[in-house]
Design a protein that fits this description.
The protein is an alpha+beta fold. The chain is 24% helix and 18% strand. The protein has a domain of 34 residues. One of its GO terms (biological process) is iron import into cell. GO terms for molecular function: heme binding; metal ion binding; peroxidase activity.
């Protein structure tokens, strides 16, 4: 079939290509709909996008794109092509119908080939739309911009670099094999050439949050367990309240979706490593070993923000990270986090360029991420050891319902 499709492409201008090509495409679509994926494949189609409540995989390749075309129809066609490629790759297949090694030698393959022989590795691809895509005069979307997609404020201490922030579109690729995640982004960028260009990207390893009750709590590069109180996929009532956009929130095309905030947080590793264990635990508000809140013995023991020590001081200091991030200190605000560690080499002075690539999904950033981050930015003792250098905000619509649906269909209709 691959060779046949190459032959069809060669018939352009004969009048036969449209008929034969259409038949081949329909056949491929029907076949794709009936194929049962490998055991480690995450279903692509569904009411919500995979990669949000999916149990967090070990590897990340996150990329933000600028839309370089002014042609709305061309952008929509690319989103259709992206969706078809994503459905194939998450099932462990090549990005295109022809694949990496079929066809004729004179034409480039429609898959780059570095994932040949690799399983799906629980690959998920999650797409989002940035605020600037809705700017008046671009694609006629200004009236469809969600109020919740309001630009994030400048937080105290921010050292944001515009070159690695923002973007018109984003794709979050998560997998248990880094090559599978990189392959997915590479092929979407290839498909989108001339329509989008890569604005910035980030590789991540070692998830810093668990998104399922079946997962152990991981550790960040400061050596502490991270995300103990994170929302979990099994907490459906809490997810409805804090994660998914509900009917009536507006706009309708976002109902069932979620809003994504990213922050690249550089950790001053060498400074932290010279800090005493006791001070580290006081700054975080948890023990480094078990991960219990100060004054408690187990990791999941409920935090007592009212407890005091023998001197009458709060057991969990007023500037401790866990206190300032706690829902009780932020009018009940909660998010689903699925961040990753990163190490981007050194800064040329012998210091690691490393830290946390923070990822959080929520129903409305204005009532979730923004108040929590303001609280942390103003008061957190950990600010001495971290620098926020990148930020992003994206509207992630609900899932692709089937082979006839595609990313952004309801937005552009």
């Amino acid at each position: 079939m691959a060779v046949a499709r190459r032959w069809v492409l060669g018939l352009a201008g004969t009048g036969l290509a449209g008929i034969a090509g259409g038949a081949l495409i329909r056949g491929a679509r029907d076949s794709a709909a009936t194929v049962t994926g490998p055991p480690d494949a995450v279903p692509f189609h569904g009411p919500v996008q995979a990669g949000i409540v999916t149990p967090a995989q070990d590897r990340l390749h996150f990329t933000a794109f600028d839309v370089v075309t002014k042609d709305r129809d061309r952008l929509v066609r690319m989103l259709r092509e992206w969706t078809a490629a994503a459905a194939r790759m998450t099932a462990g297949r090549d990005a295109g119908e022809i694949g990496a090694v079929a066809g004729i030698l004179e034409a480039p393959p429609d898959d780059t080939g570095e994932a040949i022989g690799l399983p799906p590795s629980a690959l998920t691809l999650t797409v989002g739309f940035g605020p600037d895509l809705f700017r008046p005069g671009r694609f006629g979307l200004s009236g469809r911009k969600p109020a919740a997609l309001a630009d994030l404020p400048h937080f105290p201490g921010d050292l944001i670099k515009p070159a690695i922030s923002g973007g018109d579109l984003c794709v979050q690729a998560c997998a248990n094999d880094p090559q599978v995640a990189v392959h997915a982004i590479r092929n979407l960028a290839r498909i989108g050439m001339g329509v989008v260009s890569v604005r910035w990207s980030q590789l991540g390893f070692g998830r810093t949050s668990s998104t399922s009750a079946t997962q152990d709590t991981p550790r960040n590069l400061f050596g502490f367990k991270d995300g103990t109180r994170n929302l979990k996929a099994e907490e459906t009532d809490l997810l409805r309240q804090h994660l998914w956009v509900q009917p009536g929130d507006g706009p309708e095309w976002m109902t069932g979706g979620s809003y994504l905030v990213t922050r690249k947080v550089r950790m001053l590793i060498e400074t932290w490593d010279r800090t005493s264990l006791g001070e580290q635990e006081t700054i975080v508000g948890r023990t480094k070993g078990v991960g219990a809140a100060l004054g408690r013995s187990g990791e999941f023991d409920e935090i007592d923000l009212t407890a005091r020590n023998g001197d009458g001081d709060p057991t969990i200091p007023v500037d401790a990270h866990v206190r300032l991030a706690h829902p009780d200190e932020n009018r009940g605000a909660r998010m689903l986090r699925r961040g990753y560690n990163f190490v981007d080499g050194s800064d040329g002075l012998g210091r690691l360029d490393a830290g946390l690539f923070f990822i959080a999904y929520q129903r409305d950033p204005r009532t979730a991420f923004v108040p929590v981050q303001l609280n942390l930015a103003r008061l957190d003792a950990m600010n001495e050891y971290v620098r926020h250098v990148s930020t992003g905000l994206f509207a992630c619509p609900p899932g692709v319902t089937g082979p006839d649906d595609h990313w952004g269909r309801e937005l552009f209709n």
